[in-house]
Amino acid sequence: MSLPLHVRVAEILRAQIADGTLPVGSALPSESALCATHQASRGTVRAALAALRNEGLIAGGRGRPPVVRDTAVVQSFETFMSFTAWAHDIGRTPGQRTIEIARRGASAIAAVSLEIEEGTPVVDVLRMRTLDGVPAMIERSSFIEPVGRLLFDFDSDSGSIYAYLTGQGVDLHEGRHTIDAVAATDVDAAHLDIDPGSPLLRERRRAVDHSGKPLEYADDRYRPDRVAFTIDNTHPAANGAAPDIRIVKEIS
Amino acid sequence: MSLPLHVRVAEILRAQIADGTLPVGSALPSESALCATHQASRGTVRAALAALRNEGLIAGGRGRPPVVRDTAVVQSFETFMSFTAWAHDIGRTPGQRTIEIARRGASAIAAVSLEIEEGTPVVDVLRMRTLDGVPAMIERSSFIEPVGRLLFDFDSDSGSIYAYLTGQGVDLHEGRHTIDAVAATDVDAAHLDIDPGSPLLRERRRAVDHSGKPLEYADDRYRPDRVAFTIDNTHPAANGAAPDIRIVKEIS
User: Fold this and answer.
1) Mean pLDDT, 10 residues at a time, over chain A (252 residues)?
2) How far is A172 from chain B (nearest CA, A)?
């Protein structure tokens, strides 16, 4: 499959950073040089640089070429919080179908995570997410009511809830993601086109604001034949260098 | 459950680093000050400092107090490569029972990962791993023959294969870990005391040496009610700070 040019340009720059062609501390070529090298438009080059900046690989760049700041890609905050942003980042087309959006009392599990009483009103969203049109994940989110109520003015079939909420000024500052495995329920199975009881890769997420107040509890279940997580790590040098670790969510 | 003192001392120091009581660049209190504060022996304090050093939180310290170098813990290379080291790091007692160790032709999957022809001799190890005596994981490793043959001189019921091999000079330099979910086979189920078909959290690992040559392909299957992976991430500051990410394997 042919990837968009900005994804390929970003891949080439990542490889040059990783192999030392562009060492830490060095400046990247100018935007116009990158346009010429990759036969790309300025918009394409800027999209590639934005991806690297998000990943923490480069910094600076207001009016001058950005500088390499790290050799290890870590998946950006946004692409770890947003299925839509992640899919775009890897050059795939995300999609979604809303199965249900409901204001109801918090479940026991959501209540613990959101630090509210069980039964306190929350907004629950259940969506099936696709990659290039193929079912990949079942997403269940519970938002505290003041945040979730914003979703009744949003077409949740249209794209990223994360982008919409942050655009509305919701302070989704920090996420804790817990990864385990779970058997598909009948609902999961029907929407993901698998047998009930099949193993699913589950990512539960608790998102809090700057003050540590919980805003969202989510339970995302991926078809493991479609999405996996990878972690690369390297032995620290004998001189006590920091451990080098890189984590990404990727297509299986 | 009461954790060993060195684990608790490390936890307290991590919290002080995380909350800024010990900011990046500052020196830690001296070993004797730490001994007095925590009513701990010098060995205990040194074990706690070794854990923080492994995690990349502190650096230096030859003859003077170490300095805080980062606020984000990443799980150390060693504890990500070795179940034994990981269990010790979190204050649990690891155990193992070897089910099989065999020299045989590489499976198709191992062969691809090890970059050898299918059927080329490898050494396969199948072990059941326990935490505090309770079955937690089924470990399947395939080593290239020159590495795996060292294991016929090792009592694989006695502890860490990783520690043994690195002690023998094997250059396990870099690991790629792929995390997904898989249904328990009859063998998995029997040893982990669950029903066949139950979802397991799987971590596949490919370990290579400095030159990139594959040495080991592993398939570790965890009971998700016993072990999960967590990833913490924080929104980068508007000034373009590096994304802050922390990944750990932990008790469910």
Assistant:
1) 82 84 86 93 91 77 76 69 85 91 95 94 96 95 97 92 93 88 96 96 92 95 89 61 58 65
2) 8
Q: Looking at domain A78-229, which CATH architecture does it have? A: 3-Layer(aba) Sandwich (3.40)
Phi, psi dihedrals of residue B44, rounded to the nearest 5°: -65, -45
Do the chains contact at A74 and B245, CB–CB below 8 Å? yes
CA atoms of A141 and A126, how far apart (whole Å): 7
Contact B247 A243 (CB under 8 A): no
Can B5-73 and B78-228 be said to share one CATH topology?
Answer: no
Q: What is the DSSP string of B106-122?
A: PPHHHHHHHTS-TT-EE
Which residue in B77, B181, B243 is closest to A77 by CB distance? B243
Fold topology of B78-228: Chorismate lyase (3.40.1410)
Q: Do A181 and B174 touch (CB under 8 A)?
A: no
| pLDDT, tens only, B228-245 | 887 777 776 543 444 455
A 10 A CB-CB count for B120 gives 13
Rounded mean pLDDT of B65-80?
Answer: 74
Q: What percent of chain B has pLDDT above 70?
A: 88
Task: List for chain B the helix, strand, coil content (%; round to 5).
Answer: 30, 35, 35
Three-state DSSP at B49 gives helix
Nearest to B80 among A54, A177, A233 (CB): A233
To which residue do tokens 């589950």 refer?
A202
pLDDT, position B238: 44
Provide the CATH topology of domain B5-73: Arc Repressor Mutant, subunit A (1.10.10)
Is there a contact between B54 and B76 (Cβ–Cβ < 8 Å)?
yes
Question: Of the candidates B55, B70, B243, which has its C-beta nearest A76's C-beta?
Answer: B243
To the nearest whole Å, the CA of A34 is away from the closest chain B CA by: 22
Residues of A in contact with B76 (CB under 8 A): 236, 243
Which of A235, A239, A248 to probe the B interface (max B CBs under 10 A)?
A235
* Structural domain boundaries in chain B: 5-73, 78-228
* Closest CB to B247 among A182, A202, A247: A247
